[in-house]
Amino acid sequence: MVGKLTTHVLDTAQGCPARQMTIELWSVSSNGEKTLLKTIHTNNDGRTDSPLLVDEELKSGIYELVFSVGDYFTKHIENLPQPAFLDRVPLQFGVADPNSHYHVPLLVSPWSYSTYRGS
């Protein structure tokens, strides 16, 4: 099996995929130092066009996805309070087996979010 990292974002306030949301992918060292690996945007299905990491790019360790939900909801929902309750949502997670598929979805509204390890 080819190891890979994928994500998608669902806008639970409007009941649709979160289109054109900016996502940053960071690697986190054992001492907490972060390195930006890439910045990407979701497509019309709320997913990225390709895996975030695949094959030898995916290594054991700690990663962090940072979702720019404040910018997204400011563009898609009128009359939200400013500053936004949620702005940048960081999800830090561990990859133990780089030969596995790690799918990290985000279900989000302007006031709450949840995640899980998907398939």
Automatic annotation (TrEMBL):
Keyword Hydrolase recorded: yes
Enzyme class label: hydrolase
Residue stretches making up the Transthyretin/hydroxyisourate hydrolase domain: 5-118
Residues at which substrate binds: H8, R47, Y116
Record SUPFAM superfamilies: Transthyretin (synonym: prealbumin)
Molecular functions (GO terms): hydroxyisourate hydrolase activity
InterPro entries xrefs: Hydroxyisourate_hydrolase (IPR014306), Thyroxine_BS (IPR023418), Transthyretin/HIU_hydrolase (IPR000895), Transthyretin/HIU_hydrolase_d (IPR023416), Transthyretin/HIU_hydrolase_sf (IPR036817), Transthyretin_CS (IPR023419)
Pfam families listed in its UniProt record: Transthyretin
Record's keyword annotation contains Hydrolase: yes
UniProt-listed CDD domains: TLP_HIUase
Keywords: Hydrolase, Purine metabolism
EC number of the protein: 3.5.2.17
Catalytic activity as recorded in UniProt: 5-hydroxyisourate + H2O = 5-hydroxy-2-oxo-4-ureido-2,5-dihydro-1H-imidazole-5-carboxylate + H(+)
Example GO biological process: purine nucleobase metabolic process
Any coiled-coil regions, as ranges: none
Oligomer and partners: Homotetramer.
Function: Catalyzes the hydrolysis of 5-hydroxyisourate (HIU) to 2-oxo-4-hydroxy-4-carboxy-5-ureidoimidazoline (OHCU).
Similarity annotation: Belongs to the transthyretin family. 5-hydroxyisourate hydrolase subfamily.
Name of the protein: 5-hydroxyisourate hydrolase
Species the sequence originates in: Chroococcidiopsis thermalis (strain PCC 7203)
